[in-house]
């Protein structure tokens, strides 16, 4: 998997947003983490980036569809999102 779109939940639009914040490869996203990636997307690209995108990013980091995120992880993401 060398392309962002090879990751679960990452389509062309989210991949483009990631590239705009300097994330070109899946390893870079894993290192940065979903929360920091969404924070940067909101600041630099799309102020309206939503919780759904954060969950998609976390699923991509974990290598799973976002609907399979653990309940505790979903709550952690929701709490983080409310601080933005």
Strand content: under 5%
Count the E strands: 0
Described by strand count, sense and barrel closure, the largest sheet is: none
* Helix/sheet category: mainly alpha
Average pLDDT for all residues: 97
* Poorly predicted spans: none
- Termini gap: 31 Å
Rough outline: globular
Rg over alpha carbons: 11 Å
Order of helices and strands: HHHHH
Q: Total number of helical segments? A: 5
The amount of helix comes to 55-70%
In short:
With 84 residues, the chain is mainly α. It has five helices and no strands.
Structure description:
The chain is 62% helix and 0% strand. The chain has 84 residues and is mostly helical. The relative contact order is 0.17. The model has no long low-confidence stretch (mean pLDDT 97).
Question: What keywords describe this structure?
Answer:
about 80 residues; mainly alpha; 5 helices; globular
Layout of secondary structure:
Blueprint: H1 12-20, H2 26-32, H3 34-44, H4 51-62, H5 71-83
């Amino acid at each position: 998997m060398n392309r962002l779109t090879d990751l679960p939940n990452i389509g062309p639009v989210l991949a483009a947003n990631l590239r705009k914040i300097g994330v070109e490869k899946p390893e870079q996203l894993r290192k940065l983490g979903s929360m920091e990636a969404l924070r940067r997307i909101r600041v630099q690209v799309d102020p309206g980036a939503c919780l759904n995108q954060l969950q998609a990013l976390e699923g991509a980091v974990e290598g799973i569809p976002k609907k399979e995120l653990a309940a505790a992880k979903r709550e952690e993401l929701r709490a983080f999102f409310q601080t933005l």
